[in-house]
Design brief:
The chain has 504 residues and is an alpha/beta fold. The chain contains 18 helices and 20 strands. Helix 16 packs parallel to helix 18. It comes from Pelomonas aquatica.
């Protein structure tokens, strides 16, 4: 049975030049695979070079458009662009409230307050209506930096995002200078700079419209705000290319339907000010990746021929003997790894790893976020001196954050439901794992819920570089798992290369 695409309403302006507004929204919706219902809030007299005039649609006409849609094509998400005036904005507010009485509806507010050429579309009364009425209802607001300044004043994007009043915000900066195109993301899931190398393009008219529509479409497809921002960034960047412009000004941005499979479009999410685009690192892991909490068990796994083992030694809150206990667990594991030319990875405790001579650590992203600025510098220095790093990821925004750290591998999980530890994440499944393996700029390790060798075979077939086994290694020994991995490597992935699904 074919699934119907989600419905997104765009309430925005009609660009007579076909570059921005509803025209850009339609191109974005087609590329991301949703059904767009375009409702005109304003008509513009414009071409590729300038906006000559704006004619707000009478409120009764806008209301009639939305009433007709509500009865037959109710939205999963609404995107607003150029609204034309206070009365048009209030029509939108009334419909958002009515629709939300029936079902959840995401709202993305792109506060189009002026043209790139300098023409203003908003007076103080409209700015006040945005602040008091529309933005507090927004799931995500997507102003550019000039629009954010008009709405809440000058300042750092993090502070501006908090003042906007929306649940989440992405303050876009694609039209600013610099080697990276940077957008400030503020959401319940993640905060930071969403970045891609800046692309030279003659066709960039309508990028803000494309970004906001892409974000609304991703929300309609079930992604949370931070993941939706990653997808919107990818979609919009895919439309920046150097085809001949149809007029004297910038040509329209034309996002590509295949953007979701283009690894060059995966952004990085920097928690602090980025110093540049991260490079790729080598030193990943391959094959069966064992995980144990016992140094003696790790040594036995190395003796049986396993080449990669992670040692997880958990520290209790009142564990006074923990440093000595960790050293005792590390000693046999590290000796065996060196003896067999294998790789020992220590989970979490990177300072202790350095002291003990372990040169490979694994961190969860909650561990990254807990680091102070000084600790980040210390960890970066250790990495520059040869410390290798593996990072966990469970969602698109965590994958983007991993990109910023340039790890030696990225773990994707949980592939299947797992009882090893409590997590809010939905299982990634083999489809998401295959997407991670194709898109990530580092080797990908599948982890979570692997209880039988045939599951490891499936992980190997996706293109992942390694698969984690937490339980089961002691029960049947290493060889059956290694054979399962070899069988999977010999298979071609049959799952296709489509969209990832939401994991939260």
């Amino acid at each position: 049975m074919t699934m119907q695409p989600p419905i997104v309403w765009s309430i925005a302006g009609l660009d007579s030049g076909g570059g921005a507004g509803l025209s850009a929204d339609q191109r974005a919706a087609d590329a991301i695979g949703v059904h767009l219902c375009p409702a005109a809030a304003a008509l513009t007299a414009q071409n590729s070079a300038a906006v000559e005039a704006v004619f707000p649609v009478p409120p009764a006409q806008l209301d009639a458009q939305l009433a007709a849609l509500a009865g037959d094509l109710p939205p999963a998400a609404i995107k607003t662009g150029l609204l034309g005036g206070v009365e048009q904005l209030r029509v939108v507010v009334r419909w958002v409230d009515r629709l939300r009485e029936r079902a959840p509806v995401a709202l993305v507010v792109d506060p189009v307050l002026g043209a790139t050429t300098g023409a203003s579309f908003a007076d103080e009364a409209l700015l006040r209506a945005y602040r008091e009425d529309l933005l507090p209802r927004a799931t995500v607001a997507t102003p550019n930096r000039r629009e954010a300044a008009r709405l809440v004043g000058d300042g750092a994007p993090a502070g501006q995002a908090r003042k906007l009043g929306s649940a989440s915000a992405c303050i876009t900066g694609g039209d600013e200078a610099g080697p990276l195109a940077l957008d400030w993301l503020s959401s319940p899931q993640a905060n930071g700079w969403l970045a891609l190398p800046r692309r030279k393009a003659t066709n960039s008219h309508g990028t803000g419209c494309c970004f906001a529509t892409g974000l609304a479409a991703a929300l309609a497809r079930g992604f949370v705000a931070a993941d939706a921002a990653v997808l919107a960034k990818m979609l919009t960047t895919s439309g920046l290319h150097g085809a001949a412009a149809p007029g004297a000004g910038a040509g329209p941005v034309r996002p590509q339907a295949g953007f979701i499979r283009d690894a060059s479009l995966l952004p990085a999410l920097f928690d602090g000010e980025p110093g540049g685009w991260p490079g790729r690192r080598g030193g990943g892991v391959e094959g069966v990746y064992g995980i144990t909490d016992s140094g003696a068990d790790a040594a036995e796994l190395f003796t049986q021929g396993l080449q990669t083992v992670q040692l997880r030694v958990k520290r209790g809150d009142a564990d006074a003997d923990w440093p000595a206990r960790l050293r005792a667990e590390l000693r046999p594991a590290l000796d065996a790894a060196r003896r067999h030319g294998a790789t020992l990875i220590l989970n979490d405790h990177w300072r202790e790893a350095l002291q003990a001579g372990v040169d490979f650590i694994h961190l969860g992203q909650e561990d990254l976020l807990a680091l102070s600025a000084a600790e980040r510098l210390e960890l970066a220095a250790a990495r520059a001196n040869g410390l290798r790093l593996g990072l966990s990821s469970h969602s698109l925004w965590e994958l983007a954050r991993a990109v910023a750290w340039a790890p030696d591998y990225i773990a994707c999980g949980p592939v299947w439901p797992t009882l090893t530890k409590a997590m809010p994440w939905r299982p990634q499944g083999l489809d998401n794992l295959a997407w991670w393996a194709a898109m990530a700029p580092a080797p990908v390790v599948g982890i979570g819920g692997v209880l039988a060798p045939d599951q490891l075979t499936s992980i190997a077939a996706t293109g992942a570089s390694a698969g984690c086994v937490v339980r089961g290694l002691k029960a049947v020994g290493v060889e059956p798992w290694q054979q399962a991995w070899r069988e999977g490597r010999a298979r071609a992935w049959q799952g296709g290369a489509g969209w990832p699904h939401a994991s939260l």
